[in-house]
């Protein structure tokens, strides 16, 4: 092979190798800016809002999900939602967004070892991997037929299908007295 | 009684006393601005930082606290702490503060009723009342003898006693490889 061609070939191999390493290297932890996604949820057209992982904490939950294990969950909100929670404003004003982040729950042997000395029999559970993230977006005109809320459920940045999103609003109807929001602001 | 046993007994008495006070003190709802407190923790002199309830979320935990029920917990951090978590900076830079907010765990009949239709046998747990809040404040010079961290444990805005605060650093030593911090940033 000609010398320049050899060099180009070697260069391309190097580029492809680096690209491959980048593509298949698990991403560094929690860079929320990368989580914004242009793929919208069916029915509601809700996309993942940039930076939501950095929003303020509303509350924490635990779910014993029958047949699907245990989950730890956190609800966070954008500034409009947090202000409404703190001031008790209902219905939530347009622009409010609530995000519910769901993780698997894992036992922490490291924590248990430490806790067991002063408190025998105590067990600590931490978050494992991300399961999904759900959003409620308030737009009283656009989503007038669903209590003013648009819904979205993303797994690994991909929205669930139409059938899944058809279940969102009916499930939230029992919380009508709290503007269809189950979560209360944690003290 | 042996000295170590005495210390454990005294510690437990302190904890039970504090728990009793907590259990019978009514609490106002999450107005973070009111939570700043000038009363400093013993040993370390750490006060409640203003606005910590609005800090960004690090992670969520659940604790089966033997003999004292279940807790849901959230760890939040100031901007310096969050940046260090995201970028994997260890040791944490001076000025980093981590807050651990602990609540009682309560079953949510309202949530269960809704969840039981599509997912029979599923149970939801929400936060009840605030139990306590703990802080770790990084100051590598001021707290050089305790890994660069100052500790504080507040119940209803009052710091625990000296005996309680003597237990903070020894318990964190097993996490020395993570700069004495057990909590990992949730994905």
Written description of the protein model:
The structure is a homodimer of 187-residue chains. The first copy, chain A, has helices at residues 3-24, 79-87, 109-115, 162-165, 168-172, and strands at 56-64, 70-77, 97-107, 123-138, 149-155, 158-159. With 187 residues, the first copy, chain A, is an alpha+beta fold. A six-stranded antiparallel sheet of chain A has the order 1-2-3-4-5-6. The termini of chain A are far apart. The interface between A and B is large, with 54 and 60 residues. β4 of chain A pairs antiparallel with β1 of chain B, so a sheet runs across the interface.
Quaternary status of these chains? homodimer
- Record the strand order, biggest sheet of chain A: 1-2-3-4-5-6
Largest sheet of chain A: 6 strands, antiparallel
How many angstroms does the end-to-end distance of chain A come to?
Answer: 72 Å
Structural class based on helices, strands and sheet pairing of chain A = alpha+beta
The total of helices of chain A stands at 5
Question: Considering DSSP H and I runs of 4 or more, what fraction of the residues of chain A is helical?
Answer: 25-40%
> H/E element string of chain A?
HEEHEHEEEHH
Query: What's the rounded overall pLDDT mean of chain A?
Result: 87
Topology, number of strands of chain A:
6
Radius of gyration of chain A: 22 Å
Overall spatial form of chain A: globular
